[in-house]
Amino acid sequence: MSDHSSHRRFDGTLVTAPFGGANVERTAREEYRTLLDEHDSEDVLVITGAPTSTDTFRETLGAELPGAATPYVTSLVVHATDVLNQTDDRIILSDALRRELLYRFLADYEWDTEYLRRASEQPSFIEDVDAVMGTISWQTVTPEETPELRDITAALDAFHEWLAEHGHMERGQLISEALDVLSGDARDDVVDFEAVLAVEFEEFFPLDRAYLDVLAGDCELVCIAEENASVRRTWVETGPITDYVSFSETRRGTAGAPSTRPAATAAYFADQTVPEDPETGSVSVLATDSSDEQLAEVANKIEEVVAQPDWSYDDVAVATKQSGSTVTDIIEAFEGTGIPTESTTVTGFGDDPAIRELLAAVRHLATDGEERPDHGPDLDTERLDRIREMDSLEDGVRWWATDSGLKERIAERATPLDARAQFGNVKRAFRMAEFLEDTEFVDATWASFEEMLERAHDYAPQQNQTSATDLDGGVRVDHLQAIKNESFRAVFLVNLVDAEYPGDPFLTRLFPTERVASMPDYPGVTDLDEPDVDATFPTTSTASSRPFARYHTEHARRRLAIGAGAADEHLYCCLYEYEDTALEERAQASRFLTTAYENLSWLTEADDPHITSEQAAEDFLLSRVDDALAEVRRANSQDVSVSLDEVEAELGEIQDLLDKSGARGEKLRKALRARVEFANGEVRR
To answer: Is 248 helix (H, G, I), strand (E, B) or coil?
Structure first.
């Protein structure tokens, strides 16, 4: 929903930086250095477009300061939170608590439009309408033409009023509410700087720009916008940021040629130019048969990479197109191989064994012991009965966690990184119990706590965080937008098949895509024409005549550019040949990867990785038996000869390996025996 009428004039300087992380960092350092000539570092506020990139710019700009001095760097959302914490008594809800209250608010809500009344009967309705409400809330837009969108906006307004009556607000209100504070008399009480340097300005929404304008006031203002790099803003607004703003002074930063092959590949994805080969770094294509094998191969390659001197897991990132379950699937796969992970946008709440154990106890308490859970260790009924007699939910659940030995079990069974994450999740559960007791929204009962905990557990893989989470260390697993302007020594871009890049245009499950595409007031880019596409993207990746399809194709390509740009030394483009379906349909390689392979001479196929993880060793061992059996069956069915000596030699080597592997070898021996029996049609019971 682009609105070119929302033009804003700033009294300051706009510097546009050519695409590329090195260009942005160089421009930011130069402008920061210039501001330091006139101001002390504590008087220069550096504000980023996303919380995830604050550490990057803090480190980059910190090089310009002497000694242990640290730049004053924050993000729009964090700054707005600080403003409201100083001026507003309302409680800012976490994502989990906000989602829980929205579920309860909408459970009996009466919709005006027939479409939403029918849709509300579907199991996924609240989750689907929640996503649209969240988008409207963060942008503070008011749809006026589509009846269903007006209906959703009315429900959102009523939800906000309901929250305000009980002294709460949601995170989607942060910037709009803080903007009201800065526009009033309290501004001088919360503004403590003389100059503002805004980076990632290309991603600022209209509301973000209004906030920055009021925040800067009479202070010196410099904004840096990277060309052909916006992915967040161009999801809701077409064209470059310069179409919506004007400044007292405008200039373009200097352009440097990409210094590494990953950076050159990112530039190709962003603007379709073919740079000179930097001859530094590598870009490899990692191809496997299936998506499951893709993750196993990525895990094995990660182990191979971090086995090198001076490498660690947090030097590596794995990036997906979408967040939610796609990210959690990778996290679960890596955890199965012993690789530690971290994510800024998805919590581990859903697959945390500590939370599952706590949930089992809460289920028992919620049913008064009538339906005893059939899982969860040490559900001592006497202990649970004692908790039931306590007056406080929070005190009860905290006492149970201590007395049942949950904390000790976390420390014993988890790695230090996993233990830290699990302790964090348990603390969030404690805060949920505390919230129930402190709010008038919901009855403070074990049944209410169970419902809240169940929902947080069940929907954790589908929900994204709107704030940056504390990183626990390990391989970073996130969607592409979340790693923008960060840097890792190795980045794996997964699922580079055409069904994913570009895939089909998708904005919401609440309405059919064709209908959304025709909504002029949907809070996203929908009602388009050809000039809109051409003004936003310099690339041409599809022959489609539909502007909507063209736009979202080029947007997917730009996301790949952002992901590739996060790799400092090694970039791995990962794909698979067959879909994991019953028919095993062939997956087409992404058109973006295909054209890059044709035009960029430095793209090569990845070397076969050495077996560096226990899981990879098991998979190889089992696959060799499968291959040997397949060779023998093929010999029988196709009347061809096969060398049994070679098969026997391989099986003999496997047998020797198992003999030397003790109990672990015996376990694998049973698995191999089961494979052979299954191949012969035998079923062991």
So the answer is: strand
